[in-house]
Amino acid sequence: MNLKIIAVTLLLGASLPLASAHAQTASPAATADPDKLTAADLEDLRTEIRSSKKQLVAATLTLSDAEATRFWPVYDQYAAEVAKVREGQTTLIADYVNTYGKYDDKAATDYITRWLDLDTKTTALRAKYVPIVGKVLPGIKAASFFQVDRRISMALDLKVALELPVLQLQGQ
């Protein structure tokens, strides 16, 4: 099993149809060690996910010119803060992929604790932005934005959960 390909596919696969083409393209770093995620791989993933997410939000929300003028700067601020949390999630996935098969009980507990901490940070960030987005968009459009945002995150999280091998099954 090539864990790097799984990680690239699951990190991008839930975000945009472009992802499958990207995941099938091997970079020089990928061919050097196919089971390791490099810093360049991670940066490419982050950039594509951010772009894909904004495209999905724009395609889903119907905003007037005035609403768009108010919303997009708030969105960009929110997206920057989300990116910091997602960076932690991407790093955690890379750590998992790069050390899979070497976990002991302490490392496994650390892994799940870090993952839950990132989930908590994501939820807190959304809660922080509900009133901020509510000041620039009417309630239904603000709620629609958060529904789309959460659906994208849930699709990505589900893909991760389904694709990464379970720790107890190491070496089988």
Tell me what you see in this structure.
- It is built from seven helices and no strands.
- By secondary structure, the chain is an all-alpha fold.
- The chain has one domain (3-169).
- Helix 6 (105-136) runs antiparallel to helix 7 (139-163).
- The longest helix has 35 residues, at 65-99.
- The protein is elongated.
What secondary-structure arrangement, pairings included, does this model have?
Layout: H1 3-13, H2 18-24, H3 28-32, H4 39-60, H5 65-99, H6 105-136, H7 139-163
Keywords:
single chain, 172 residues, mainly alpha, elongated, disordered N terminus
Short structural summary:
This protein is mainly alpha-helical. The protein is built from seven helices and no strands.
Mean pLDDT over the residues: 77
Number of helices: 7
Residue stretches low in confidence (pLDDT < 50, at least 5 long) are 1-32
Q: Tell how many strands the DSSP assignment holds.
A: 0
Q: Taking Cα atoms only, what radius of gyration do you get, to the nearest Å?
A: 17 Å
Instruction: Determine the strand fraction and express it as a percent band.
Output: under 5%
Biggest sheet details: none
Helix content estimate: over 70%
What is the string of SSEs from the N terminus onward? HHHHHHH
Structural class given helices, strands, pairing?
mainly alpha
Give the CA-based shape: elongated
Count of domains = 1
Q: Ends: how far apart?
A: 11 Å
